[in-house]
Each structure stands twice: as structure tokens, then as C-alpha cells.
């Protein structure tokens, strides 16, 4: 639904090179700071003992190390920035009539016959690039968006591996059998829409993605959101809400119901959409019936809190400050997982039903595992945090966080959610 097209493979390559250059620069700076923190300790001690007689030696040392690290930083960034420029020029020149004429006349062959020929992109490589891009966006997505790096992920809805078109006529052509109930899957941190197929095995029909199986069983159309998980949750929710409003207006048939299914961070984004609804979103308020949160850290995630605590702890000690800064290089999306959105607080008059599903890698009697490890990333207490007393809550044992993306027990829960509003298809 977004007007921005997904960057091409060459644009993503350019963005990757730019990002690597920035990363080298940042890493060199952190190492430089670590070196300086170590060297400052003996210089301060010697300086105190010799009434600063060692100051000239310290100045020379610092000047030399500053020059060395500065050279490494600028050279590393320069090499990759230069490579990104080459890719950009090559990408732009492909459309140049002059280059095309030269190629048709065979003049370019003398220049390129010694260069390696890159593999042509295909569906498999594109998926791999998208997966890597989504992972990097989860950690550094706010930086990529702020610097307008071509590698940043743009929000869009997908179906059958294709992005949704923006206008109604195109949507009608794309969905000739459009249904009036939409079920929209929202992935988690560092993932994309392909994460819902992570455990799919073509030889085992039971492992087909939730969306495919639900479309077989109910009159629904399954859609998948892709978004930059490195941006903060509220920003993604506001953009998603605008996209949903536009989708409802342009959908080929009148939308009577929407079910949002979010995994991990995706559940928080879906919840934030509902909490952001206003009187101006009257159609959307009537359409959204259910929000299903699969392993979503409503009260925060232990690993995210550990990273935040580590950053604060290391920042208190001069020698460890560079380590604290490394831990501090976390996207706003990850920082939002420190404490989540808090326990569920459904506003008065809100008719959306929330379904909170959590899991633990232990059994139901493993209280220590449940409270400290949970599903490996989120504890049941956080996944089921609800102060309203209205949410439907389910906990599964012996399932890890990613299992929730494709699991027969979870699928049965999703079927029960849809059965509240829809009649199953007759087989």
C-alpha cells in the first residue's frame, strides 16, 4: 500500500556498502576509546606521582594513536563509500542511452570483459537479501531511516509474495476473489513476512503457513505486513494505522472484519494500532475485531532489559565506557522492548478482543524456567500481562519463541478466534 517501491537488489547493495563503511567507522571509534581508556589509567597514575612530568609523553602518545585510528576509520569508511558510489553510478548508467548504444555496438566489451559477471538476482537470492536487510534493520533501522539509507525497509503489505498495489483498480486485479474479512500477520523483531514460512516443509501439509490454511478453512484473505523493526513501536503503529485506513477504503469489497495476528514485537505494534484509534478512524474501529499476540513482550523482554542494564553499568566505569557505548548501539525498536507497552489497558468503549498467547520451554511445573527463561525470549507473565481481565489468555508448555510462528496448537487457537465471527467453509 506504500507509494515507495521496495529498493532493488543493486540499491540494497549500495546501502549495505554504505552501512558497512559507517559500521567500520563506529567500531574503530569504540576501539580507539577503549585504547584511550586503558592508556589514561597509567598516565594519570604516573602524572600524579611525577607532578605531571609525564604530560609531554602522554601528549605524543595520544597524538600518534589519534592519527592511527583516524586513518583506519577514514580509510575503511572511504573504501566502502567509494564502492557504494561505484554501484550507484553503475545502477544509474544502466538506463543511459549512451551506455546502451555503446553496448549495442560492442564498445563496452573491451572495458568489461575482464570483470567478473555477477549472478543474476532470482527469487531465492532476493529473499536472502530481504532477510539480511530485515535483520540489520531490526538492530540499526532507526539509523538507516534517519540517514535515508537505501537499505532501510519500507512498510508495505504483501500477499503471495507480492506487495499490495495502492489504488482500488489494481487491488481488484490483484485480488479477484477478495474476501470481506482480512487476517493480517505482523512479524517480529529482525524478521519480515517470510518468517511465517520459517518451518514450512512442502512434504508435510500440516506445516503450511497459518494464512494459507486459514484461507482454506474460512472466507478470509490473508495479508502480511513488512516493516522496519528498528523504528520505535509507536511510529510503526501510526504508519500501519494509516495504511489500514487506506486499505479499507480501497479494498475491492466492503471490509466487515479485520483480525491482526502479531508475533513478538508484531503483537505490540498491532496493539498500539488499536490504542491509537480515534473518532477519525470510525471505519477501522468497526472493522478490527481481534488482536492475537503470539509471545509478545507486553511487560518487556529479559534480554532487552539486560542490554539496557549492561549499558548503564558499564557507562559508570571509565575503562568499561566503550563497552557501554557498544551496548548502546541499539535501535529504538529494541529499546522499546526493555519494558514493552505495559500490561494491557483496553480503553473504555473499545470493542476489540485481545488474545494473548505465551509459551515456555519447560513444562507447566517448571516455575523457575517460566519466570526466568519463558519461551527463551519472553516470559509468560509478560506475554499474558493484562490488567483488564477481559483478554483471552493461553499458555503452552514446551514451545520456544519461534515455534509460535508455525504450530498446530496455535493454529487451533487462530481457528477458534475466526470461528467467533465466520462460518467455516464447507469442505
Q: What do you see in this structure?
A:
- Helix content is about 50%, strand content about 10%.
- It is of the alpha/beta class.
- It has two domains: about 10-110; about 155-300 and about 340-420, Alpha/Beta hydrolase fold, catalytic domain (Rossmann fold, 3-Layer(aba) Sandwich).
- β3 (about 180-185), α7 (about 210-215) and β4 (about 220-225) form a beta-alpha-beta unit.
In short:
By secondary structure, the protein is of the alpha/beta class.
Summarize this structure as a short list of keywords or feature phrases.
hydrolase activity, eight-stranded mixed sheet, alpha/beta, globular, 427 residues, Rossmann fold, 2 domains
Radius of gyration based on Cα positions: 26 Å
Largest sheet: 8 strands, mixed
Strand order of the largest sheet: 2-1-4-3-5-6-7-8
Enumerate the spans where pLDDT stays under 50 for 5 or more consecutive residues.
Answer: 93-97, 99-121, 319-324
Distance, first to last CA: 33 Å
Provide the residue-averaged pLDDT.
76
Class based on secondary structure composition and strand pairing: alpha/beta
- The assigned CATH architecture of the largest domain is 3-Layer(aba) Sandwich
Beta-strand proportion:
5-15%
Shape: globular
Number of strands: 8
CATH third-tier fold name of the largest domain: Rossmann fold
Give, in order, the helices and strands: HHHHHEEHEHEHEHHEHHHEHHEH
* CATH C-level label of the largest domain: Alpha Beta
Q: Helical region count?
A: 16
Keywords: Hydrolase
InterPro entries: AB_hydrolase_fold (IPR029058), PGAP1-ab_dom-like (IPR012908)
Pfam families: PGAP1 (PF07819)
Organism: Limnobacter profundi
